Amino acid sequence: MGLFEMKPIDERIYNEEIAGFLPDEIIDIHTHIWLEGLAAWPAESAEKRSVSWPGLVAKDNSAEDLIETYRLMFPGKKVTPLVFGNVPHLSGLPALNGYVRESAARHGFPALFFSHPQMAPDALERELLEGGYAGVKSYLSFAPPYIPEAEIRCFDFFPPGQLEVINKLKKIVMLHIPRHGRLRDRVNLEQILEIKRNFPGVLLIIAHVGRAYCDGDVGGAFGALAAAGDLLFDISANCNRNVFEELIRAVGPERILFGSDMPILRMRTRRICEGDRYINLVPPGLYGDVSRDAHLREVTAGEAESVTFFMYEEILAFKNAAAACGLGRSDIQKVFRDNAAAVLKAAL
Question: Residue by residue, what is the 3-state secondary structure of 237-254?
Fold first, then answer.
């Protein structure tokens, strides 16, 4: 077997429900590439401050594996990814960024630099310019260790001095917001608006629709963010049709970007919400012991036959939301290609 198995149900869903919906050329604005060991956390390291289940999907994701994934999942389509590293231990950042930079150059992919908040602004500027990066990705794991995970703020891993550099260069910031309140959290909302107000040249993308995976994660966020008229949202690793409908009605198709969060979307899963907790329903035995992860639950062997890729679940949820909101072919072209092409052109 190759990288992963394409089952008859996957081929049927793609051919009957997805292929005709997608444009022929796609830009995936949110993908991780790394080799095993480059993003590893030493056993003695501090808590990662992140959920554990994504690590069950793939031990690594080389650029070649990413290309093969697109070939298998999207026959007949041309997919171009924006690539960046996976969340590493701080000591692994140079090697991880080096791999991303080399892979991006070899395959002609745009890339983001994975930064950390202790990095001097002039060093960040040098990396962005010398590496030809479209912008920056970071993660809440790099916030100072004395800050409790629930209290981490955006500026704790994207400090103002670095944002000044990114603002000057007019580069992308791919922002995975922290905090248990997700998109509805008032601190998150205020800091997003502060970034747009104080650093207007930053091309700010809110990843995963602000981690609004369940209906209750949205709150009044879109009304609060109305003042940030050029704020962008990617839909990566989200398959909530209701959230997508709210997003479309709030910002329109011009500010929405397709993203996958590969390789996580190779996962076979159907996502549900129980209250404000998302749960990934997975085939039995496929991802080892899931009993200690509150976000995973196995289905029966019979139910597993109907479980397809997370990737297809995301696209189908957006397709249904787009239909409910009356989006046309040109709007879908914007979400799955044109908006990303425009922001990358501006950043590069």
Answer: CCCCHHHHHHHHHHHCHH
